[in-house]
Amino acid sequence: MNANFDASYPTSHSADNRYVHGLDRQYVFHSWAQQGSLDPMVIAGAQGCRVWDYSGREYLDFSSQLVNTNIGHQHPRVVNAIQAQAASLCTIAPAHANLARGEAAKRIIAKAPDGFSKVFYQCGADANENAIRMARLYTGRSKILSAYRSYHGNTGSAIAATGDWRRVPNEYASGHVHFFNPHLYRSEFWARDEEEECERALTHLRRVIECEGANAVAAILLETIPGTAGVLLPPKAYLQGVRKLADEFGIVLILDEVMAGFGRTGRWFAFEHYDMAPDLIVFAKGGQLGLCTGRWRDYL
Ligand SMILES: Cc1ncc(COP(=O)(O)O)c(C=O)c1O
């Protein structure tokens, strides 16, 4: 049992695993799951990298919940900041100016590459939706290219941009085209090494752009490091190659850093490992909520 486990924690005073599990099974609908066969693990509290249930049984949280507790659970500075903010102002409409919102945006921009100027506060899937809309409005084009090995969220365009199996029954948004991203272990390109995989994946992407009509493509949307698809590190030169293709054809490059961003790869943004920068960065999870805008000064 964790030494910090506090049996008097308000949510645990009268609850036990059986009661919480029963409540969940009776009333809670879970995402992306066949409801009838679910048997969720009960979690009563957490500290750092550990979580525990109501009996005090402790587990290491190897998945950081949904890969979002980048600095661990219940960091005292985060808890204090949330408590202080809740005591002064719990909510604010988008139209107003607010110290915390402005300060957070200023600090995020300080970490972003040169030319990034604004933060648009969103949830992960919403941030992808808005990045897609911005790219369409900015270019006057409609198609969005994204990878088969990807997840971008469960809303209209975000799930249509997603490559994995969850897209197929949910494809109601139009204008989405998919391509194969590099993954040497299960190469779609019969490649023998990383260099070959990279070169062939870039040739494939060029062909997809040409075949879809370069003047019709608004954006390429990629997870910098695909996460849900299996933590697939792209070949070193791949993202630079995608950047070049986007520039050549006037396509907006959106990097989804919802899972990989905000320190998870050892840098603030995962694309910093690849000596390139996108036009739009999408982040959420460990990076709170948001979307950074890049080369948009004239437009904004
Ligand atoms: C890469 C990526 N993009 C977008 C999302 C969607 O974020 P959210 O669930 O906060 O809407 C996720 C969620 O797992 C993700 O991993």
From TrEMBL:
Gene3D superfamilies per the record? Aspartate Aminotransferase, domain 1, Type I PLP-dependent aspartate aminotransferase-like (Major domain)
Alphabetized CDD domains for the sequence: OAT_like
Q: Under the cellular component aspect of Gene Ontology, which terms does the record hold?
A: cytosol
Q: Which SUPFAM superfamilies match?
A: PLP-dependent transferases (SSF53383)
- One Pfam entry for this protein is Aminotran_3
Q: Does the keyword Ribosomal protein apply?
A: no
Q: Which GO terms describe its molecular function?
A: pyridoxal phosphate binding; transaminase activity
Q: Which UniProt keywords apply?
A: Pyridoxal phosphate
Query: Does the keyword Transcription belong to this entry?
Result: no
Family as reported in the entry's similarity comment: Belongs to the class-III pyridoxal-phosphate-dependent aminotransferase family.
Protein name as catalogued: Aspartate aminotransferase family protein
